[in-house]
Amino acid sequence: MQAEIIAVGTEILLGQIDNTNASYVARNLAALGINVFHQQVVGDNPERLDEAITLAEKRSDLVVVLGGLGPTRDDLTKQVVARHLGRKLVVDEAALAKIANHYKVTGRSLGNNDRLQALYIEGGQSLPNYNGMAVGDFVHQANWTDFLVLPGPPRELIDMVDRTAMPALRAAYHIDQRLKSRVLRYFGIGEAALAQKLDDLITKQTNPTLATYAKSGEVTLRITATASDDKAATKLLDEMENTVQNRIGAYFYGYGDENDLASVVVNQLIDRHLTITAAESLTAGLFQSTIGSVPGVSAVFPGGFVTYAASAKHQLIAVPQDVIDQYGVVSEQTAIWMAQQAKRLLATDIAVSFTGVAGPDELEGHPAGTVWIGLAYRNQPVVAHEYHFADDRQLNRWRSVLNGLDLVRRAIRDEN
Amino acid sequence: MQAEIIAVGTEILLGQIDNTNASYVARNLAALGINVFHQQVVGDNPERLDEAITLAEKRSDLVVVLGGLGPTRDDLTKQVVARHLGRKLVVDEAALAKIANHYKVTGRSLGNNDRLQALYIEGGQSLPNYNGMAVGDFVHQANWTDFLVLPGPPRELIDMVDRTAMPALRAAYHIDQRLKSRVLRYFGIGEAALAQKLDDLITKQTNPTLATYAKSGEVTLRITATASDDKAATKLLDEMENTVQNRIGAYFYGYGDENDLASVVVNQLIDRHLTITAAESLTAGLFQSTIGSVPGVSAVFPGGFVTYAASAKHQLIAVPQDVIDQYGVVSEQTAIWMAQQAKRLLATDIAVSFTGVAGPDELEGHPAGTVWIGLAYRNQPVVAHEYHFADDRQLNRWRSVLNGLDLVRRAIRDEN
Questions:
Q1: Which terminus of chain B, N or C, has less C-beta within 10 A?
Q2: Given 3-state DSSP classes, what are the helix, strand and coil percentages for chain A, each rounded to the nearest 5?
């Protein structure tokens, strides 16, 4: 079984965006045991797309075409594939109803272009788009190359690959080998250091396979095992997880693809009925907004303070002016006062405070990246920790938030 | 002039790494006015690489091959290209001396494979690698397709593209034509609607070209003109901008690739010495954190409030309990009180408030996506606007933030 990926989009050809869709699809095909020997990229040009399809179908059993399903004039993928196959486009009525409803809710009128997003190739299988409007398409043909058509926006593509496209391939190709993955999440260790500690395992990997992935300051490790049944695959995963955790378990904080540090911490707070607040200077609300992104957080988070200026630290949460004057805002003492006062004012179990220098400029003689994070945890003495980040303004702020979450996680763990 | 990019590497084919090299090279070729109509990816397989080259040289004037120059058994790119062209590989003595010295310094012995990295194609131009060992190669041929061979590790590739590869192309192709781009930014109109309004221009585009791009609720339009000199290119851009703005100028808010709505608004506040605060419920600090991401914001932003729970709205900013009881938290009245009180407490010129239903669940009988945004602007009457978003929790929160920024932008504009 050989597949080929064709990404469609002038913005990819011109390098305005990276072709992450092709990587995502390639990984998923590899996981099904389907080989990918070629990828192509063409612009929003029907002739060149047709040439690419003609070339691909000669050498591949499955052609996966990515992008060009949207409502604009550039979006021609389904039309080109249908014409190439000599088939018509037909309406997915459920998808059309969803599009019409979306327009109704948002008070706009439905154009002809918008309707195009509900079309799929006659005789194919329309794949619903849970994160957007344009449906995908799987055309399984007896004795000829198959076609899988997927939307371009990554949120839409990833969801469709996971929910319907890969299951459709599994069913069509009778792939019954069990493939199981487990994602382990780490914080406080970089991807390179993590990979080095697992170097021998990664080098000789066959089954299970190991893949590290770094994103926004966290590192994940995906272990994937193939076996004849579920139980055997689970056993392979368990054994590899043990080996891995013996080496890097100290940095482990949770399982799962979507289960980021904020979700893990907020869910622990909800489980334990621990309420939390924050007083934020350099992060300016990013910590609270991040815990606010987790559904259900309202049970443990009443609100909090953004004390960006020194005056707000005094005015909103009554950090004594002489503490600020004596130690400066970028100091252990200010961080401790901020956490203590926030906890007291909102009568929560926990308060986290952030004060420091996001950059690009220095502050009070401290270089960009100097951050104090305070933690007031139940009846324990209030503490503050110093960090030195060496990234840009946004990443310094984000690393502060992650380390604040990690302090809360460790406090909960150490108490239990 | 037409170029084609071939990336070589099984790790790209399998999706283990993103093909960022291709984007980088594509952007640089575009900047020289060299069209890229095709990209290919093949694995570390000499036959398939040769096939890809054969296809590419038929339809392109320049073939850029990325990766496969290293010292391992997989690295065969230069050998395949040389054989394809019927040329020998010869030693770049300076590169070989550098490699030998590196091995001497690190106390290892030089292997035969390591020597391979100093080879280039006879008659070509060896391109030094300042961030690694393997040299690149530019083969400029009279009356036949040219070849540019670049290393795979991004640090090495980027440096070589900037320092020697693009200058070599400029010289070989006598590129002195000026290519100028201008990015126009829009908010409050979707990509589809915007493209529809420019449909005829997009259809017949030649010079300047038009490209729309949607990201995180904003839409950008890139106009790119080619001309013999800077002034002529600017004139083409000006003319097209006028035509475009006559149709969609109402949604325009700024210029530039990086200049997002938050940057535009914060910089207007700084310019006009207008201070701002916020009281946030469903956005939980995301508005403040977003304006906090802009360097220099400390001049106009003292801090603010996250009033997630109803109790915090009363406790932190003294929204009267009977307002909350009578109208609910998701109401015009609560939004107005929140903005008014936040402005008063921090004595700012402007306050924005957010209260609503992020989702996934409904609240007080209002469906997810119902949001009230309040605006207290200088001495004007405090107002609140109702929105209905139809996205997921995170996107509903983000759209709220963008609309809050836009309200501020419009208030500033209408005052002046």
A1: C
A2: 45, 25, 30
